[in-house]
Amino acid sequence: MDEALRENIFGALEQVVDPELGIDIVNLGLVYELDMDDEGNTTITMTLTSMGCPLAPIIVDEVKKALNDIPEVKDVQVDIVWNPPWTRDKMSRYAKIALGIQ
Q: Which distant-in-sequence residues (6+ apart) come within 8 Å of 19 by Cβ?
């Protein structure tokens, strides 16, 4: 996958906002990995801010919807992982400022 497509996908994922925190999943550091095969089958490996998050199915649906408009993406699979665990250290500077975290 070329860098422009990768940036396009991450740009689309920035439209997916964590409903509890009001910050997108990219800036929160929830997206760990992005893979795409030659047929356009795309796998997003990500985590959530807490185990047992009741909003997990909604976030997964939003990820799939966000990538619908990218022609190279044919199918999306979202793998939720808990290892490594998410911490505030994974957040971007933008997310930390928006949430008032030093």
A: 55, 58, 59
